[in-house]
Design goal:
The structure holds 2 protein chains of 2 kinds.
Chain A lengths: L1 H21 L5 E2 L4 E7 L2 E3 L2 E5 L4 E7 L8 E4 L4 E4 L5 E6 L5 E6 L6 E7 L2
Chain B lengths: L1 E8 L4 H12 L4 E7 L4 E6 L3 H10 L3 E5 L5 H34 L9 H34 L5 H21 L13 H25 L1 H8 L4 E6 L2 E6 L8 E4 L8 E7 L1 E4 L1 H4 L5 E3 L4 E2 L4 E2 L4 E7 L5 H13 L7 H28 L4 H15 L2 H21 L2 E3 L2 H7 L4 E5 H5 L5 E7 L5 H12 L5 H12 L7 E7 L3 E6 L2 E6 L1 H6 L8 H9 L3 E7 L2 E9 L6 H10 L3 E5 L4 H11 L3 E3 L7 H10 L4 E5 L5 H6 L2 E5 L12 E3 L5 H36 L3 H4 L5 H20 L7 H4 L1
Parallel strand pairs in B: 15-22, 15-24, 22-23, 24-25, 25-26
Antiparallel strand pairs in B: 1-3, 1-4, 2-3, 5-6, 5-7, 7-13, 8-11, 8-13, 9-10, 9-12, 14-26, 16-21, 17-18, 18-19, 19-20, 20-21
Helix pairs in contact in B: 3-4, 3-6, 4-5, 4-6, 5-6, 5-11, 6-25, 9-12, 10-11, 10-12, 11-23, 11-25, 12-23, 12-25, 13-23, 15-16, 18-20, 19-23, 23-25
The chains are: A alpha/beta, B alpha+beta.
Chain lengths: 120, 742
Amino acid sequence: MDLLINSVGLILIAMIIWWFWMSSPKAKVVDAQLIDILVEDGVYSPANIEVPANQQITLRFIRKDASPCAEKVIFETLDKSLELALGQPTELSLNIADEGEYGFTCEMHMYRGRLIVKAK
Amino acid sequence: MTVRHFSIGGMSCAGCVASVEKALKNVEGVTSSSVNFAEHTAEVEGDYLPESLIKSVIDAGYEAALLQSEEDTAEKEAAEFEHYRNLLKKSFVAALVGVPLFVLGMSGLLPDLNNTQGQVIWFLIGIATAFVLWFSGGHFYTGAWKAFKNHNANMDTLVALGTGTAWIFSMVITLYPDLVPALARHAYFEAAAIIIALINFGSALEMRARGKTSEAIKRLIGLQPKTARVVRDGKEVDVAINEVGLDETVRVRPGEKIPVDGVIIDGHSSIDESMLTGEPLPLEKNRGDDVVGGTINKSGTFLFQAKRIGSETALAQIIALVRKAQNSKPSIGKLADKISAVFVPTVLIVAVITFLLWFNLADEMRVSYALVTMMTVLIIACPCALGLATPISIMVGVGKAAEFGVLIRNGEALQTAGKLDAVVLDKTGTITKGQPSVTQINAYSDWQQSDVLLYAASIEKGSEHPLAEAIVNAANDKQISLHDASDFKAIAGHGVFANVNQHAVHLGNAALMQKNNIDINVSINDAQQLAEQAQTPMFLAIDGQLAGIVSVADPIKDDSAKAIQTLHKLGIKVVMLTGDNSHTAKAVASQLNIDEYFAEVLPEDKEQKVALLQSQGYVVGMVGDGINDAPALARADVGFAIGTGTDVAIESADVTLMRGSLNGVADAIAISKATVKNIKQNLFGAFVYNSLGIPVAAGILFPVFGILLNPMIAGAAMAMSSVTVVSNANRLRWFRSTVVRQ
């Protein structure tokens, strides 16, 4: 019994490390110019978005979560931020030339998303 | 589908409407559009990019700008209040079940799990608690699951795992008590319910406190009137603010707010701009003067022409700038962000290790100990306090600064402003009013004073230099008819040359005269005396002979001396830069108690002087007008631009002072220091809370003191940690201007 519990514990630790730090969720490849992102229940949906470089895109955030945590979305590396009105779409237009990953979070880093920019 | 409103410029006839409509309909995603010729606006519906639409209109030969109406503050507040009530309701329901269970348990009135009757009662309690977890804590479980699917973990994860583990373990031992020793047969249903109640209650309190942090931005949004009285077809009609078109004529009566930015075309009044600039005294405005949306017309009635509407108005730009700055983070908060990013998974690992340690090292109660400590670790950890520590203080600090007419561009500028130990002031327009006037004219040889002024003004007629303007104004006042000047040459830092009335005329400083071998010995004493009175003497030479001196003085602003005194009190060295000669510079410096000055500085050398001070180890703030001083402002650690009125679009500056007073510099530095101190307190509190709380929750005190933290106390501590951070940031709301404090 002890061996089983200890083994389960160690496997759990390994799984936490793997799931949260070593593996990434599959990004949703988006070709459209207008991308809707739902802000609800502590997550951005979709949270991982792949977009082409050098293309004008507009992210349209639709905030359903009334808690203050969801109020802002910050693109730190892009020096952009938005205040999300509850229940109303709020848009951010971007045209990113450089390939790479650009994170976006709420101000407390609990809501998290990634824009993965790839050359067409 | 989104409906947006745009202002359309350049439409002169009904035919233009068709052209604009065609341009709008050509944009991909536009489903319908209507152009209002009278209002010079367009309403466009569809899924399209606003930028594409604006480009299409511009390509068609017109102008377009997105009209952004601020969200209805009342609606937002109502939604927030609803959420607040909802959280309280959830907290109340959870407490309604949790607290009686806790009291009954402590009183020994609940049965144990060693018989069937006890099991049945506990099973029913478990079902009731499950309802509570679903009703009051459902959002934690949904959030945790969704985050998990995205390989993410957040506060919901910790709460869901902590309370979920408690409920599942309790239900398992209720159904199968023999799985654990008799002493360890304790159910934790009440703990799960009370933790959910406490965390919801904490969230409600935090929400309440956070509402106060955005008071400054709410106040700015509230300045925007809802309607405007425009003149259409000779009649005055009230229209919604977003229906005011470019170049429309607007009527403002006494006591009313000015709806948009524009220029007075008829009438005059005194206008209170204090809400935007912090300038306490109303300003007299006449025909041709600018008026700013959101400010209050005190006395007269006037008509003005709308020149900036929607997102282009000064007020809209101020709101946008303050919001952007509020959302930016200084480097002091980066460490907390890095920790936040890995915090929750780390806590999960610590919780599992805690479980295993207790399971392997404790006595027959080991399962209970392992479970309780694991649960307590999960519940006490508070990533929110860590994540909130910096942004919430920045939010209040930047907003408070805006109340004093100080616009801080970003969090980094705010952090650096608190570290400044030297401030460089450009003399003209910063220390002085920037409106020089001729104070004395000396004539030499056979020339008359009127001749000296005539030639000086004739040569300066085409120049835009402030000193030139003063000389031309003096000639105009005396109704002197000026000659035309030809072959005009400006010699930077020295003066000007031109041919006037068939004479070669030089006007400038002593260096210009020496350079052209003009003897000025006869006037040297006069010039020195004028300079010692803080005036700027300019030599006039006609055909290589000294003809006179035109002396110009720029009055020192009333509050400059006080502001410099305040900067000294803040421990800051004050340095002045001026293009004036050393005698004038010395006179101004001694009059204002300035620590150091650099005289005869050419515009392009200002940047070098800032760099020189930096090389001496100073953290340097540069204060200038933001146009001529742009390189020096950019070189400085913090660039302050003294705006005129509500001039917010000064890109080269880190801080814009909308009130043309040096007191704004002291205010900006003082509030920066206060905000950085507040952030440090928050970060210290959040770090100490988590780094002490988690080990205590894991049972580090147990081997020596026999103390184990109750998970419900952990829940209360967690709920209060965020509230404490927000409340501490709210203390910044009571910050007072350095002027008021004196």
